[in-house]
Amino acid sequence: MPQYQSKRLVLAATTLSALAMVTALSACAGGSSTAATSAASDVKAVGGEITSTGADSLTVVDPWVKAADTKAGMTAVFGALENTGTTDVTVQSAKTSASSTTELHEMVMVDGSMVMQKKEGGFVVKAGEKHELAPGGDHVMVLDLTKPIEAGDQVTVRLTLDDGSTEDFTALAKTTSAGEEKYDDTDGME
Amino acid sequence: MSRRRLLLGGGATLAGGSLAGAAATLALSEPGPDTASVVTAEAKGAQVVPFYGNHQAGIATGAQAHARFLALDLKPGADRSHVQRLLRLLTDDAAKLTAGRAPLAGNDPEIPALPSRLTVTFGFGPGLFDAIGRGDHCPDVIRNLPAFATDRLEDRWSGGDVLLQVCSDDAVPLSYALRRLVRDSRDLASVRWCQTGFNPARDSEPAGTTPRNLMGQRDGTANPASDTEDFGATVWSDEPGWLRGGSMLVFRRIRMDVDTWDDLGRPAKEMATARKLSDGSPVTGGAEKDDPDTAAVDGQGFPVVAAEAHVVRATARTPTERMLRRGFSYDDGPDPDGKPDCGLLFAAYQKDAVASFVPVQKRLAESDAMNTWTTHVGSAAFAVPPGCTEGEYIGEALVG
Question: Which residues form the signal peptide (chain A) (predicted)?
């Protein structure tokens, strides 16, 4: 199992100021899983033995990536992970065509601030359910951008599941400021 | 009592109309409390026009109640990769929005949820062809639409590299669709002009009724019906190459001098077109779809139909002169002196504008009784690519 750091990252309004800290985190980039592809966890027998993988039941709906320049140096991939199977699947790591460093992140509220941190154990997509990756929530973090991602670009993404199977998809780049808002938790907010 | 009648009236209309797929339930009005008389039908807002197909939607689609035509100019220095990115974004947005879904990165699914036959149709102006290095693929008539003697064109209503025609029976999903499309084009293009048009409300008259324009005329009588061979032969390009299955759009902003028109006597109004205002039928008799009898004479031997009557001049004289007129009225409100600013957003789709719009408009510029009250103040011509399948973007065969 990969090591997870519990170090937390405060998401700044302009992600720029967080760059240094993100870079510090990038050493633990999720690589490819070493689990065997013939996972026993999701074997179905229908008129004979058919082995299916987690990726067989995982669909990525409406994937997109936030356009970003190299000054920001990082961005995120969003979309909905849909598990049409009868067994839970876990996304353990991701890779993209945009950079060499990718992490699975979640957003949590700590002391009144939304902070981004690595998702311990990856993204678990329960059988028959949908797991949203969205600004302000879970996302695939793309770090160390060496060239900009411009609106309309396509980024290919490979998710690796806990059984070693992989799911590839293409994310369209969109310009948005989504997820950059700050929440003021001072008194008076309803 | 009046309420019950209204509800039953609705039910009768539904039963008579085409209700394919719509879940209509009619609780017949048995003696009992009024609340038992309930007619529910799948809301029209849920109606979807498929985006993907051989042809783009929004052409054969019956004209919706609302339209916006918006022209984009590519940013200076735009090249093929910029155009690819733009079309990829806009195609994806259009596919989702017309299906009643939020675009990627949009988190307001409620606003586009009832698209009300929303369509998004794309056209390409000469600047797009030049940007991708394929200036020679632009039909000459699109690049060099002839000037006509009666033109009074203004730059602010003319030209453009990319046209978005966005139509819906509901102005709310239309507004949302346009704002998201424009937002996604902002990195790559600027807005050249935006023109807003409308037709009579959906179902204000039985389906298939030719709509009235702001002069009160039935406008579009000569249009081919969308499900006919005639329609295809009139509208769709059959040239081998990237435009096959596409079309050409000539878009004109035609200002109406409605102040003068309103004061004109009805006989003069009807003489100007040779059709009756009431039902669009020829002044010489017959039904709406009939041509006026240009040989008819009155009791004193004078022709009933003036040689310069609009319909006489505008009617196609050869099959290739036919067009689909998919127009919308516009009304941008009166000026400070109370003078109206309204007219027609004339949108003519045709296989080849050289054979259709150009000769017809040349004839109208030479002589047309309606020229007294109408002035062309804007003009733009676009090549309209064919439709696409999921995974492709509009214009991919041209842009690559």
Answer: 1-29
